[in-house]
Design goal:
Blueprint (H helix, E strand, L loop, with lengths): L1 H15 L10 E2 L14 E6 L3 H14 L3 E6 L6 H5 L5 E5 L11 H11 L3 E5 L4 E4 L8 H10 L4 E2 L3 E4 L24 E3 L4 E4 L4 E4 L2 H6 L10 E4 L25 E5 L5 H11 L3 H17 L9 E3 L3 H6 L9
Parallel strand pairs: 2-3, 2-5, 3-4, 8-13
Antiparallel strand pairs: 1-4, 5-12, 6-13, 7-12, 9-14, 10-11
Length: 325
Amino acid sequence: MERLRSDWETRRVSRRRARASENVPLLLATGAEPRPLSAADLPLVTFTHNDAKFLRSFLAHYRRLGISRFIIVDDRSDDGTVEFLTQQADVDLWRSPLRYKEARRGKLWREALMARYGVNRWYVSIDSDEYLVYDGCFDHPLPALIRQLEAKGQKRLFAPMLDLYPRGSVGGFAFAGTDETMPWQVADGYDGDGYALAPNHRFLSLKGGPRHRLFNTEAELAKYPLLYWDADCSFGISVHQPLPFARNFVVPQGMLLHFKFFSDYRDKTRAAVAQQQHFGNAEVYRRILGHVEEGGDLNFLYPGTRQFTGPQDLVAQGFMHSLWA
């Protein structure tokens, strides 16, 4: 019965939302035609805006996991992002006259690029401040993980976001990104409790974490960053609940380490509020800014804070399941 309800919801949402991504204007920064993917390639699709500090560690992390092509949309960065990415041989850098908000928070870019590079293949689809980990990820790269998923009949990986933060006053923890230092080497704290999982007919909704605890936000943490993309797929209403919905009901087998808070968070938050590109005209960022203006520097520490030392922590604590067990 639940499968029938999910299938019905998929048809209803698919009918309601036309695929506007078919005519999304995108152009390679080089002006050339995109290089086709080989059957052996494993591509990653993302977009970025003034996140130059993450680029070196981001590329290093995903190269280690087996990504062979980075398909990136730059959303008008002016911090050296474009100059750095155009020098990377495994990066296809795209530009669009649409801003992030106009592209439905990046969904139209993702769908358009996946259509261009080809369906019936696996993609990693994430944000530029998200680092996917799973049990044994540094010994078993993504192609091995995909083989495990296929053996289980799964077409996507459920890997919720886990917000990491410095264990102390945030203003004292800088992340420069000038080398391949990983962000969790600076921000290694996370909430060990306070999460609520609420399954519905579309996906497994998950909320909680430090942003909810301090700012009373309702940010959705559920994500499916590794997907087998075929003609039935779209991001529909949100990347948190991709279609077809029936594929979304799997246990967490990975986590997306998510990094928003380093010493530059005030400037980043003010910029997000001014640009109003994020959901609800950057309502979450407005709450953060209001909290800072009232209470001073941020400090996320509380008795339930845990220290991240590796993916094995998250398996042991029940945040995710191992595919190798």
